[in-house]
Amino acid sequence: ADDAHANNMLVYAGTISDERGIRQFLEAYLLMNRIMPVRLRLVGVRSRDIFLERQLRLCPPGMVEMLPWMKHKEAIQRISEGTLGLGLDLPLPGSDGPPTKYFEYMALGLPIVSADLPFMWKIVEESGCGIVVDFRNPQEVADKIVDLLRDPHRIEMMRQRGLQAFIKHYHWRTQVPKLLALYEGLLGVGN
Length: 191
Prior knowledge:
The chain is of the alpha/beta class. It is built from 8 helices and 6 strands. The protein has helices at about 20-35, 50-60, 70-80, 100-110, 120-125, 140-150, 150-170, 170-185; strands spanning about 10-15, 40-45, 65, 85, 110-115, 130-135. A 6-stranded parallel beta sheet has the order 3-2-1-4-5-6, sandwiched between helices. Helix 1 (about 20-35) crosses helix 6 (about 140-150) and helix 7 (about 150-170) packs parallel to helix 8 (about 170-185). The protein is globular. The model has no long low-confidence stretch (mean pLDDT about 85).
């Protein structure tokens, strides 16, 4: 194992359940820890799944931290302590846009490890703020995350790109004029 990287921590914010891809990710996490010690912090509501409980017991002792739902400000603080932000989300019926966590990760300067879904990878690829992985392939996920964690310069570049993209394209100040124009168009104001 690579002890020089023992301070690396992956963070995930959101619903911690099989439907959200936690099972696939934990398989990758176990593979990753054979190569390099990596801590994992999961913040959110957790499902009571026997398989999930078993998988968590297989993880290296003391390396996985499960934090319950908490106030947003506290959650953001705990997430900000990570090295990479996980976008595990598998597609759910009716979901057609990126989760809020992507924008929170970007605002915090956390490179994103994104699922290979069109509305998610587009943000990551266009801004250069992370990597896209096939969460159905645990070995690919483990290999790509380990490669990234071994390259602090690349992580720093992704941090900067994510912050810049958030400020330029996704911060509420840049969205207000677009929203007002939409409302004006719908109401027929200003024509």
